[in-house]
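Structure (tokenized):
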């Protein structure tokens, strides 16, 4: 599995730029895909909070299970 490596990479991006919307959102999706919904919610909420300061957008959420939704 590459999840641990991806998680470390996204956390490094967030360490360098705490408002990195894409990294926050993607980290949330990694946790969601692992079934860790509390951690996923934490990072999705952080991504939404960062949106207000960056003007960036988040695409619809798509898990590896094929489910799609919006935040």
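Design, position by position:
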């Amino acid at each position: 599995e590459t999840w641990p490596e991806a998680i470390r990479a996204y956390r490094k991006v967030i360490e360098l730029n705490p408002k990195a919307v894409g990294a926050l959102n993607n980290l949330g999706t990694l946790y969601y895909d692992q079934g860790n919904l509390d951690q996923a919610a934490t990072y999705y909420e952080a991504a939404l909070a960062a949106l207000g300061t960056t003007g960036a957008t988040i695409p619809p959420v798509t898990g590896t299970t094929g489910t799609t939704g919006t935040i």
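Reviewer-requested clarification: The chain has a mean pLDDT of 83. The CA atoms of residues 40 and 58 lie 15 Å apart.
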